[in-house]
Design a protein that fits this description.
The longest helix has 22 residues. It is globular, with a radius of gyration of 18 Å. Strand 4 and strand 5 form a beta hairpin. The protein is α+β, with helices and mostly antiparallel strands and 204 residues long. The chain has one domain: Lambda Exonuclease, Chain A, CATH 3.90.320. It contains seven helices and five strands; from the N terminus they run H-H-H-H-H-E-E-E-H-E-E-H. The chain is 39% helix and 21% strand. The chain has a five-stranded mixed sheet. The N and C termini lie far apart (48 Å).
Length: 204
């Protein structure tokens, strides 16, 4: 295993899984927040606070049940990860070493399963997979999501080569925005109704 600290470059602008959530929701979020430096100025919401509480408690719960269910030999909690190659970094809730020698990230979500959000969560796992490969030099073929609002429902997520390439293209586009590229707005206009940038966003 290589130390994630040894990869870290203080001059690099790293992209996190949380950044990618904003990007996939609407690419212009990134332009206004990261390129222009205009914050969202939103207060903490109930789900965010509950999500943090879930993450704080997870270490003392499911110590044996989840590892056995997913075929885990060893669990590492709160893993700092970074990929210099892709310019991404993040903190995985858990990383598991599986019986077949591969590794798998596991993420807890204070949410109910939803197909649209699932795709966003999957991209987060793919980012972790890219970082795990670089830090631990281990293959990642799948990850897991635990939905805490559904009695800790466990969902297995396949991670393919195509998934990794797609996330790589997202990262490249994200960097273009950081360099000043003004992206298209989301095609789902319902997202614009409560958007904090709606009064300054150019509608095309």
């Amino acid at each position: 295993m290589k130390s994630s600290q040894s990869f870290f470059n203080e001059n690099q602008r790293y992209i996190t899984p949380s950044d990618m959530i904003e990007f996939l929701y609407c690419k212009r979020f990134i332009y206004y927040m990261k390129c222009l430096g205009i914050g969202q100025n939103e207060e903490k919401r109930f789900k965010v606070m509950m999500g943090r509480e879930i993450h704080e408690k997870r270490g003392s719960q499911n110590k044996e049940y989840l590892p056995k269910k997913i075929g885990s030999c060893k669990k590492i909690i709160s893993v700092n990860l970074v990929s210099e190659k892709h310019g991404i970094r993040g903190n995985a809730d858990e990383v598991h070493i599986l019986v077949d020698g591969t590794m798998a990230p596991l993420d807890y979500k204070y949410a109910i399963y939803d197909e649209r959000l699932f795709k966003t969560y999957k991209n987060q796992l793919v980012m972790y997979a890219l970082m795990i490969k670089e830090v631990f030099e281990k293959t990642v073929q799948k990850g897991f999501i635990v939905y805490c609002r559904e009695a800790n429902r466990l969902v297995e997520v396949d991670i393919t080569k195509e998934d990794k390439e797609k996330v790589g293209s997202y990262v490249e586009e994200y960097r273009r925005i950081l360099d000043g590229y003004y992206p298209e707005a989301t095609k789902q206009k319902s997202k614009c109704v409560d958007c904090c940038y709606r009064n300054i966003c150019i509608r095309i």
